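Technical appendix A lists one of the benchmark inputs used to test multi-chain prediction within the project. The record comprises two sequence entries:
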Amino acid sequence: MRSARLSPLKAAGLVALASLTGAVSATESKGYLSFQFSPETPYYVEDGKVDFGTYNGFRRYHSECHVCHGPAGMGSSYAPALMKSMQVLDFDQFVEVVVRGRKGLNQQVMPSFASNMNVLPHMNDIYAYLKARSDGVVGVARPDKFPKVRKDAQASAN
Amino acid sequence: MPQPKHQLIALCASAALAASTTGFANSELIEMQGDPSSWVMPNGDYASTRFSALDQIDTSNVKDLQVAWTFSTGVLRGHEGGPLVIGDVMYIHTPFPNKVFALDLNNDGKILWKYEPRQDTSVIPVMCCDTVNRGVAYGNGKIFLYQADTTLVALDAKTGEKLWSAVNGDPSKGGTGTSAPMVVKDKVYVGISGGEFGVRGYLTAYDTDSGKQVWRAYSMGPDADTLLDPENTTHLGKPVGKDSGTATWEGDQWKIGGGTTWGWYSYDPDLNLVYYGSGNPSTWNPAQRPGDNRWSMTIFARDADTGVAKWIYQMTPHDEWDYDGVNEMILVDAPFPPKDEPEASSVAAVTTAETGFKMRSLLPGRKDAEEAAAPEPAPAAEPANVRKLLVHMDRNGFAYTLDRVTGELLLAEKYDPAVNWATHVDMETGRPQVVSEYSTDQNGEDVNTTGVCPAALGTKDQQPAAYSPRTGLFYVPTNHVCMDYEPFQVSYTAGQPYVGATLTMYPAPGGDHLGNFIAWDAGKGEIVWSNPEPFSVWSGALATAGDVVFYGTLEGYLKAVDAKSGEELYRFKTPSGIIGNVNTYTHKGKQYVAVLSGLGGWAGIGMAAGLTDPTAGLGAVGAYSSLSDYTQLGGQLTVFTLPES
């Protein structure tokens, strides 16, 4: 069973999501200590606090991506709102775009981050953050976080 | 409405009128910048005043302004910079792919020629914040275009034919071109962008005829690179000493040290000095580059012929907030300190202005405002303490007034009360007194420093201010935005972003607006009036002898305000947000005002989706409406004039 990641506060709004990803109710949660990233359960959130990886995703997003995609994944005059993109992109598609880049219309270019060591190791975390934004469980502000746990499990906590 | 002040109005001093005439191009441009019927350089004149002696459009009739004609550039990205007008031809440029159009003013803007370079789109993602370009330069019968891929091209101004090109940087390492070149005598100067990619900044002079590189001066590195003379180049009056461009760096960090030169360049023909500023040290994580990081964040005064610096002044040593020092340097001759019996003198000045006295511009070569039309005024008593000043509204929120001959620091005051990262600038050492609470360096890596004002966008970014010698005031488009800033370790890979900090931006506390358009007294260091704007003002201002000041807004308005009071006199909503700079010229004796619309740039990134209170929780989007509710992308020129009477 995957670890749960639903905030009781937000659970109501996430019924649809839960059924999509197979996440289970918060009562079965072992808490953030046992949380582990997977494409299906990318983040853990409880009472508005997120796991450290998701928080790191917030940081990495706002240093590497926001100059084009705008604050908090909300889009800019240059590049699309990723909080919306995440409603349709799955993990593999996300990774594919970030690694390979993409040329759009009107001279817009999504760069390839394949050789960027400030992004590649943090791919899961950025995905988790954007997914959390897209699911409406993280606001535009800097999220509160649980402390870092089990570095090996946290894929890339900095 | 606060009363305007007129301390500097007695600028009719004539100290600087004699123009030196070294070389044909120099005198050509000096002569042309004095002719208000054209607009020959991006900021109007070498002194970057963005002032025009034209006064057909004035405070009484500006309300009748109408659109004369429009032109779509066919490009959607952010349109910074503005048109040049030379004779009967207007030259406009676009963001990437950097098209240039020559438009026939005799024929409602029919295209005389068009130039569109072929550039590899791989340069686009290494442009930090949209694919902007700040305009072309004119000189020696040529139009100079500085492309995104750092190719500098000389085009025949008549035909658009490409005469030569030179490559100024390496986009595969993050170097890009966004700035407008400047021509002085037989040289054309260009800078480099890419501070977020670890590019080490430099200014390069090319020969206008051959395209051959004449000199290149780096912002940091050994003296041979920086063209600093250890004995004769001074910093606040003291010689800089040997290799000052590496002495305050650890190891080889200076090689990827930033200090790029993507802003504006000014020139004083009498002193033969070129003035410009350098950008942020790289990376944004201050812990990775201990020391003062000289000479990032620095004002340079360089000999136009040799590039050797006469003086320099570092405004923000060891930057911790991304406060690039690249904003324009406005060169004025004015009494300093200002005379302190304002009652009598300001009354006199207003009266003379109202009775038709045209203030004489101090710009070398600039003719008296409409000297033919105005009766010769009785010479105003010339204040004894007129000095050659340089006024610079820095991104760090301080407005600096310096002696541009010696580099002496005369004044440094906040031009937005929100500025909090430093209490003041120590006038002896020139150093800002940093407030620990807002020091991202003292707070350390992986710590989120909150509530820093201004945000990294600065109290003002590149959008140039204007200066009116008639009011003695500077008209400044500003941002009113603060930020959280969290630095962390980054590794350098050539051609990849090298940022090293997370930042979030939001409106300054207590306010409900993200920008102000202000009038600034650079002699007193005071705001004279301030108009709040819902969004950052990202458009270059224009001041005219009609005592009207123009600027654009991010929603797309072209606004005209009274130079003395700031009262709004006219607005027109253009098709897209304005981040371009307003100009004015005459055609067949009639005055026109022109501006490029086209939302984008950093403003489009920061504000398109709306900013929110950092402490606001979920669903706070829309606390401040998003810019995208007002306007959309699209490059367009709009030209205004008064109706036929």
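The longest helix of chain B spans residues 342-354. Confidence is low (pLDDT under 50) at residues 1-23, 341-376, 617-623 of chain B. Comparable benchmark entries are summarised in Table A2.
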